[in-house]
């Protein structure tokens, strides 16, 4: 995610908020933009978002962090997660991970899940198919070499995708993952506002019987040491608020 594609993000966010059925939105918004950008769209292929909760079971939350690793902020986030004994999912940018291999290994060794967020964070819906495969494969290879474990999840930058992007991920053994709870945390200086926006979405999802797949950013795809104090403080607020009522999971528990 990030500033240049804020329009796309905003559109994706607005569509994600809408409860109208998929087909209706496809007609309203123009099928292609909808299918390529709406986090919940399955038209371009199945993606993992969050499951329906079993009746009577507590709510489930997956905290996912994109665009890292960020040497300035990821270590602080890891400490915070440790305080709550919570495991999260980190969708790493391949070129940053290869530059920060010690930090990348540290994230994995702390029990967190590592996902592929492409090598250089392009909009893959506008990228040539051969280049898409290269972005995904180079990242997967680099991550697996660093952490010594298979990487099974992929999140497209900006949520932007085409059928061949999802197919390329699956051919590499990765499940494409989107989200259902996001706010513009990369552009919002107030942790309270970030946490309040996300809590509203989480509570709504829980009431409707769905788990929440929450996106926050510990990194910045244009600035490897982006200041993410607000996002990480907001993550702390969510941990505090939901520690007693919800179960925190990694996306690997869902598929
Ligand atoms: Zn991103």
Account of the protein in words:
It is globular, with a radius of gyration of 17 Å. With 255 residues, the chain is an alpha/beta fold. It is 44% helix and 13% strand. The strands form 2 sheets. Strands 1, 2, 3, 6 and 7 form a 5-stranded parallel β-sheet that branches. Helix 2 crosses helix 3 (31-37), helix 4 runs parallel beside helix 10 (229-242) and helix 9 (191-208) crosses helix 10. The chain has one domain: TIM Barrel (Alpha-Beta Barrel). The chain binds zinc ion.
Features:
alpha/beta; TIM Barrel; two-stranded parallel ribbon; 7 strands; binds zinc ion
By CATH, the topology is: TIM Barrel
Number of domains: 1
What's the CATH class label? Alpha Beta
Quote the average pLDDT. 89
Shape: globular
Question: Ends: how far apart?
Answer: 23 Å
Query: Which ligands appear in the coordinates?
Result: zinc ion
Order of helices and strands: HHHEHEHHEHEHEHEHE
Give a quick account of the main beta sheet: strands, pairing sense, barrel closure.
Answer: 5 strands, parallel
Assigned CATH architecture = Alpha-Beta Barrel
Q: Say how many strands there are.
A: 7
